[in-house]
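Convert to structure. Protein one:
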Amino acid sequence: MKAAVLHAQEDLRVEDVPEPTVKPGQVKLRNAYAGICGSDLHAYFDPAGAGLDLENPHPVTGSRLPQILGHEFSGTVVEVGEGVEDVAVGDRVAVFPLYSCGTCAACRRGNTNVCRTIGFHGLTSHGGGMAEYTTIAASMVHRLPENVDLKLAALVEPMAVAWHAVDKTGIAAGQSALIAGAGPIGIGLYFALRARGVDNIVVSEPSADRRAAIAAVGATNVVDPVTQDLAAAVAEATGGDGVDVAFDAAGVGPAVASGLASLAPGGTVLVVALHERTVEIHPTVHLVMGETTITGALGYLPKDYTAVIEAMSQGLYEASDAWISEATIDEVPAVVQDLRAGKRMKVLVRA
């Protein structure tokens, strides 16, 4: 079968690989769509910076390079292994790709998304979504309602990242938010906030294309922080109070700084983006004087998948051409370069 396979840093090949064989407790999927994620770009360009060890077997999965990529994906069950009872051939599913050890401090507390040795199917595993087929534990698939198609279902994973981040802040209907960064996660934050009844949302994004994309899905208060006055926009939107929660979905220092400057007293900055550089914070100014909270969010839990799929079934998400484009497996190496250069938004690979 055809697959996009990472062999080493900056060595990604499209090649024929053996079709996987289903084992007891697993299902075999005919993959439909797989999203290319920022984590895939980190794995390709800077694996060490993203905390990925490409030299040694993964401590949970035992997998090592070469690695089929694709951890944001959907598919249809074509075969079930021995002992599988709650999933059937023909089921359309979104894949929950997270592997956890089950024994570390995080796992014992139910926080498997921050497992000390976390792994992902399609990043540190035996297969992935950027291939015609994969096999995975039956417990790692979520069946889809009839009105959620496989293209939208491939977005459950990144949308669950954003849903988990919003949920962690406890933001409620009637409150206000700032989103710094209108990439796929920024758009996911917008969808999740709207699903919770939060309508007063300011979006900060320097890219004209990304501003247009988030405006196309409904955002009305979208600001260019380079040429416009973000502080004035926040003040106008909140009657001078500042926002209750500021989300960093950009992964750059100015996003954190602008978030801190935009907060109401007692507000929260949540970082959901990966940063490549350190950010300077003055504890007295940025934390103590406003009783400010700074926190982070990583990944998702099964309940976030369930919530996103339910919200999708209610029509609260869309996979429009405004922010989604498609590619073939053969095009993946070129698309990775395009994404790094900021030339495309969210790309779904047709498997």
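Protein two, convert as well:
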Amino acid sequence: REEANMSRLCRRFDISRSTGYKWLRRYRSEGKAGLKDRSRQPHNSPAKTPDHIEEAVCSVRSKHPAWGGRKIRAVLRRQADAGKRSFGSAAVPAASTVTAILRRRGELRKEDTDKAASHERFEKEAPNELWQMDFKGDFLLEGNQEKRCYPLTVVDDHSRFAVALAACGDQQRETVQERLRGAFRRYGLPRRIITDHGAPWGVGMARPDGGSYYTRLSAWLMRLGISVSFTARAHPQTNGKNERFNQSLGAEVLRFESYPELSGYQERFDGWRKTYNLERPHEALGMDVPASRYEVSERSCPEELPPVEYGQSDEEVRKVHSTGYVSFRSQRFKVGKAFGGHPVALRPTVESGKWKVYFCHQHVRTIELDQPPR
């Protein structure tokens, strides 16, 4: 009879009979006190991470509040190998254990553990083959309802090395050129720069034939021998390394600090860029730092822009009008105001009546004779 009552009771509360009898034994032995939850922690934890290593984990996290288990582990191992810690690199726990330490000590927020969406990665074979450039979202200066900061970020595709991080007061062409000149003088010229279609490098729209509109900033880069390309529309992941850099900038700097002047942000950006390039492990680099894969470009920045010259035997050269049009074979074609006042080269293709238009080394559009201008 007692067995039948216990079975019915366990079914009612949706527990197993073994669990029901366990609680019955505890009640008979200890009374109501035996029904309280008991800790599942083992009496002994021989594999527990030593306190001094947990303190080392937390010290790195305190200095870099946005870093997770893998980055902290890589830094501790590097410091241990360099003799900067009292323990060897073999004593550094696994990344999952480091994450568990942070969670147990209340150092992790929910968003720190959320998985980022995966995407296919591509990478150029050498430094300076491609730089990715963008403005991170702007924001008001501390205590100011008018002045804003526009962080300009430029990242090398191969190494993830940050070649520029500038606290700009606007997004004007002159501002960007000044900051890029500083990067070019220090690191040399890249082969190509990729950006989105927004100002000041693009105009935010495509030509009717699907091509790109160029700006005076784009033309300036082309005169330096740098090719200009744009991300696929509605696909910011094309500029993924720069997007990821901007996310890290927000998570590791802008989330915690604000300043009333651009100079304050620039000083902080300079310090963080140094940490990012020289100290911060990068998962896509096998936990190496960007500086370990970056080299200065062999193409130095000229002090003056070189003249626009062409030399192929089958090309025809025309000067672009200030309106952006060029006259060719008794027809007018729109090339772009960015090239106004400069010569462009028209080169025939294998298709009859179709010509490619070049500014310096870059193909900027294709025209068709006896077709309505577009």
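The two ends are 94 Å apart (CA to CA). DSSP finds ten helices and twelve strands in the chain.
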